[in-house]
């Protein structure tokens, strides 16, 4: 009986070692920070996820990303700059209510923002999000090529979009 328990203990330790799972706060799978090309940020209870820029054939940089407010207090995105230039937006202001995401670009988008880029794919540029209440957030976002999975990102054409 004791030998069976010892064998089970040894097998458990060997399995944990071979899979490199670790435990608790040092587990390998817990240490993953970024799983997409997009970057992440936070200001107060506003989370910014998978923020990146897609450069299309017209040298427009289309903003991709999702912002979610975890607070009960409503906030709003009041401005966005890419590389120091104010973006063209589909609305002058985007309200951030609790758990109602603002999604830039894609099939589920409810917001559009873009600017003209001189930088190429593979480079990084600063994006600054400003809010009514929360502190501004600056992210160092990657510019990616307009590959097949980024086709048809904008809901509106540039001529239909308002500038704040």
Descriptive overview:
By secondary structure, this protein is mainly beta. It has two domains: 2-31, no CATH class; 39-160, Sandwich (Immunoglobulin-like), CATH 2.60.40. 11% of the residues lie in helices and 39% in strands. The chain contains one helix and eleven strands. Strands 1, 2, 3, 4, 5, 6, 7, 8, 9, 10 and 11 form an eleven-stranded mixed β-sheet that branches. A hairpin with a 4-residue loop joins β2 and β3. The chain starts with a helix and ends in a 19-residue tail after the last strand.
From the structure above, extract its key features.
164 residues, 2 domains, elongated, mainly beta
List the helices and strands and how they pair.
Layout: H1 2-19, E1 39-43, E2 46-55, E3 60-69, E4 75-82, E5 85-86, E6 88-89, E7 94-96, E8 102-104, E9 113-116, E10 124-131, E11 137-145
Parallel strand pairs: 2-11
Antiparallel strand pairs: 1-2, 2-3, 3-8, 3-9, 4-5, 4-7, 4-10, 6-9, 10-11
């Amino acid at each position: 009986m004791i030998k069976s328990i010892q064998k089970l203990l040894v097998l458990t330790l060997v399995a944990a070692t071979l899979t490199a799972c670790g435990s608790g706060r040092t587990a390998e799978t817990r240490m993953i920070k970024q799983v997409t090309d997009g970057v992440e940020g936070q200001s107060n209870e506003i989370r910014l996820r998978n923020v990146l820029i897609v450069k299309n054939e017209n040298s427009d940089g289309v903003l991709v990303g999702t912002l979610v407010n975890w607070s009960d207090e409503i906030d709003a995105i009041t401005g966005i700059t890419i590389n120091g230039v104010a973006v063209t937006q589909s609305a002058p202001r985007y309200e951030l209510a609790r758990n109602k995401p603002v999604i830039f670009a894609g099939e589920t988008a409810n917001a559009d923002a873009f600017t003209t880029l001189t930088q190429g794919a593979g480079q990084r540029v600063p994006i600054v999000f400003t809010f009514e209440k929360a502190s501004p957030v600056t992210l160092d976002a990657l510019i990616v090529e307009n590959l097949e999975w980024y086709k048809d990102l904008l809901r509106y054409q540039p001529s239909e979009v308002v500038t704040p």
